[in-house]
Amino acid sequence: MGVLDHFSNLFDCSNARSRLKRPRQFQTVEIKVKMDCEGCERKVKRSVEGMRGVTQVVVERKAHKLTVVGYVDPGKVLARVAHRTGKRVEFWPYVAYDVVAHPYAAGVYDRKAPSGYVRNVEDPQMGNLARASSTEVRYTTAFSDENPASCTVM
């Protein structure tokens, strides 16, 4: 069967590029774009709505965040938003506050980040910071104000 496949590939009249092209994956692209007013929000939303493969566009003006869902290439989405709007854009650099081990460490905490988010930094120096062990956590929470039985321990 290998010989027949080889000959059929030699005499194939269809476009060869279509076979080599990878299909796009369904993904979510998050982009940081500065938006001040409803006009900016509308301009950013319209810049990506017409793209091929886009299924959903969500704009959060207060967080300066654009979320594009669909069968798209992240680099092309970023370039298109930058070109069509003329604004400075970058991929969403923040992660949720709960995900990071040390959210207030230098380089991670960012005042400009939306509430509940910190910068996504993979720094090898962050591993050197001390983490509390389970026994330390148990003893420190025993005397906290949120523990209703702490007065009996004291």
Structure description:
It holds the Pfam family HMA. The chain is an alpha+beta fold. Helices cover 33% and strands 19% of the residues. The protein is built from six helices and six strands, in the order H-H-E-H-E-E-H-E-E-E-H-H. Strand 2 (54-60) and strand 3 (65-70) form a beta hairpin. Helix 3 (38-49) crosses helix 4 (74-85). 10% of the residues are buried. The model has no long low-confidence stretch (mean pLDDT 79).
Shape: flat
Portion in beta strands: 15-25%
**What is the architecture of the largest domain at the second tier of CATH?**
2-Layer Sandwich
> How many strands in all?
6
Subcellular location: Membrane
Organism: Pyrus ussuriensis x Pyrus communis
Pfam family, one: HMA
Protein name: Heavy metal-associated isoprenylated plant protein 26-like
Quick recap:
Belongs to the HIPP family. This protein has about 150 residues and is of the alpha+beta class.
Question: Secondary-structure map with pairings?
Answer:
Layout: H1 2-10, H2 16-20, E1 27-33, H3 38-49, E2 54-60, E3 65-70, H4 74-85, E4 89-91, E5 94-96, E6 117-119, H5 134-142, H6 150-153
Antiparallel strand pairs: 1-3, 1-4, 2-3, 5-6
Q: Notable features of this structure?
A:
single chain; 154 residues; alpha+beta; Alpha-Beta Plaits; four-stranded antiparallel beta sheet; two-stranded antiparallel ribbon; 6 helices; 6 strands; 33% helix; prenylation; lipoprotein
